[in-house]
Specification:
With about 210 residues, this protein is α/β, with parallel strands linked by helices. The chain folds into two domains: about 1-125, Rossmann fold (3-Layer(aba) Sandwich); about 145-210, Arc Repressor Mutant, subunit A, CATH 1.10.10.10. The chain has helices at about 10-20, 40-45, 60-70, 85-95, 110-120, 125-145, 155-165, 170-180, 180-195, 200-210; strands at about 1-5, 25-35, 50-55, 75-80, 100-105, 125. The chain has a six-stranded parallel β-sheet, sandwiched between helices. Helix 7 packs across helix 9 (about 180-195) and helix 8 (about 170-180) crosses helix 9 (about 180-195). The two termini are about 35 Å apart.
C-alpha cells in the first residue's frame, strides 16, 4: 500500500485528488496539509511513503518544504504537482531532492503512474517537464561545453552503472544485469553521487548530461 500525504492549499484540487486516488486499490491518502509548516511532524512523515507537494504554498516555498522534509526523513519520496513548467522552477525542484515533477493538468492515468514510479524509488517527469529539461540542457551545452579537466573521472564499471541508472533501472535490476551484488551497485551509485556532486538520482542524471557522460 502506498501511503500518501497531500500538501496543497487549494482545497477543491485536494478533493479532486482524493476522489481520483480513492479508486486505486494500492494507494491510500493518510493526511492532508494546506500549508507548509503543518508537514514538519516526525510522526506524520514516518507514516507516509510519498508526499504530493505543491510548490506554491501560502506560508512558505514548496522548495524549502521539500528540503526540510528530506532533512527530517530521507525515506520519504516527494512528487511535485505544479502549474509551472518554467525551467527555473524545475531546476530548483531537482536541487531540492524531489523525485518527480508532474503538471496539475495531467490526467488520472499519468498521475497514478507517476505515484507508483516514485514510490519504487525512480524518477518521473511529465512529458512537458522532460522537454523543458532537455531543451535547457541542449541550450546550455550550446553555450559552453565542459572543459576536459572539469569532467569527473569515472571507471568503466561506474559508467555501466550510470547508463543503467539513466535507463531508470533499480539497484536490484542493475545488479542482475551486471551480475554483481546489490551492495556493489550501491557502492558504485554512492561513488557516482560523490564524483558528480549530486544528491539523488534526479541530480545524478542532470549532472551526467551536463558533463556529457551519457
Amino acid at each position: 500500500m502506498i501511503k500518501i500525504l497531500i500538501v496543497d492549499d487549494h482545497k477543491m484540487f485536494v478533493e479532486g485528488l482524493e476522489f481520483i486516488l480513492s479508486k486505486e486499490d494500492d494507494i491510500r491518502i493518510v493526511e492532508r496539509c494546506f500549508e507548509g509548516k503543518g508537514v514538519f511532524n516526525k510522526e506524520l512523515l514516518d507514516k507516509v511513503d510519498i508526499i504530493l507537494l505543491d510548490i506554491n504554498l501560502p506560508d512558505m516555498s514548496g522548495i524549502e518544504v521539500c528540503e526540510r522534509i528530506l532533512k527530517m526523513n530521507q525515506n520519504v519520496k516527494i512528487l511535485v504537482l505544479s502549474m509551472h513548467d518554467e525551467e527555473s522552477y524545475i531546476t530548483e525542484v531537482l536541487k531540492s531532492g524531489a523525485l518527480g515533477y508532474v503538471l496539475k493538468n495531467t490526467g488520472r492515468k499519468e498521475l497514478v503512474t507517476a505515484i507508483r514510479t516514485v514510490a519504487s524509488g525512480r524518477t518521473y517527469f511529465s512529458e512537458a517537464i522532460t522537454n523543458t529539461i532537455m531543451n535547457g540542457l541542449i541550450n546550455n551545452n550550446k553555450k559552453a561545453k565542459p572543459v576536459e579537466k572539469d569532467i569527473p573521472k569515472i571507471t568503466r564499471r561506474e559508467k555501466e552503472v550510470l547508463d543503467l541508472i539513466m535507463d531508470e533501472n533499480t539497484n536490484q535490476e542493475i545488479a542482475g544485469k551486471l551480475f554483481i551484488s546489490l551492495k556493489t551497485v550501491e557502492a558504485h551509485r554512492s561513488n557516482l553521487l560523490s564524483k558528480l556532486n549530486a544528491r539523488n538520482t534526479a541530480g545524478l542524471v542532470k549532472k551526467a548530461m551536463e558533463f556529457q557522460l551519457a
